[in-house]
């Protein structure tokens, strides 16, 4: 995955494995899936991979990017950071589209479940880690990231975004995973 395009960002500050970043606007291809987190990301990946490998009009191929992102979908307003759901739910799985594409030039998905979503520039606080992204590890990283944001007086504006940069067959100690939280403008 190191040879595929990844979203560029500007590093604002860092402390250990935590970074405050500024991302430019981007476009996501995303799909909503239901179920437990691991099953949901597998299904979402399969659906979006089909789109970028030609299940679109006019059967165009779009380059693979990293990371694959996953985020819990909430139907009520968030009042405080929430840890990840452990027993199923609704998930948004997304790929960042290569920056050479625009909303006007991206091919239309053949599968109506796949949505192309423009995302404005934003600030994110991120924590990077390796290993198998087990629910308990993810929950601990979300807690650490949320505490860091609170200590820095950063206001979180959404659900945690889980970002997976390497294929599942990668040895755990070589995997690159991140959890990101969107931060309100200063």
Structure characterization notes:
- By secondary structure, the protein is of the alpha+beta class.
- The protein has one domain: Alpha-Beta Barrel (Multidrug-efflux Transporter 1 Regulator Bmrr, Chain A).
- The protein contains two helices and eleven strands.
- Strand 1 and strand 2 form a beta hairpin.
- It is globular and about 50 Å long.
- About 7% of the residues have low confidence.
Quickly list its features.
186 residues, alpha+beta, Multidrug-efflux Transporter 1 Regulator Bmrr, Chain A, two-stranded antiparallel ribbon, 18% helix
Oligomeric form of this entry?
A: single chain
- Distance from N terminus to C terminus (CA atoms, Å) equals 33 Å
Described by strand count, sense and barrel closure, the largest sheet is: 9 strands, antiparallel
Strand content: 25-35%
Offer a concise description of the structure.
The chain has helices at residues 37-52, 135-151; strands at 9-15, 18-23, 26-34, 56-57, 68-72, 90-96, 108-109, 115-119, 122-129, 161-164, 177-183.
């Amino acid at each position: 995955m190191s040879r595929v395009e990844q979203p560029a960002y500007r590093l604002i500050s860092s402390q250990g494995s935590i970074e405050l970043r500024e991302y430019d606007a981007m476009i996501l291809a995303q799909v909503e899936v239901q179920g437990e987190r691991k099953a949901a990301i597998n299904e979402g990946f399969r659906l979006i991979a089909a789109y970028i490998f030609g299940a679109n009009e006019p059967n165009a191929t779009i380059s693979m990017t990293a990371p694959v992102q996953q985020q819990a979908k909430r139907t009520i307003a968030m009042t405080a950071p929430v840890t990840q759901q452990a027993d199923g739910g609704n998930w948004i799985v997304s790929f960042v589209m290569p920056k050479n594409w625009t909303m006007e030039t991206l091919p239309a998905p053949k599968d109506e479940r796949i949505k192309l979503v423009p995302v404005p520039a934003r600030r994110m606080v991120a924590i990077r880690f390796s290993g198998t992204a087990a629910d308990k590890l993810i929950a601990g990283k979300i807690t650490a990231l949320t505490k860091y944001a609170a200590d820095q007086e950063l206001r979180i504006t959404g659900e945690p975004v889980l970002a997976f940069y390497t294929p599942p067959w990668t040895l755990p100690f070589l995997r690159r995973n991140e959890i990101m939280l969107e931060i309100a403008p200063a």
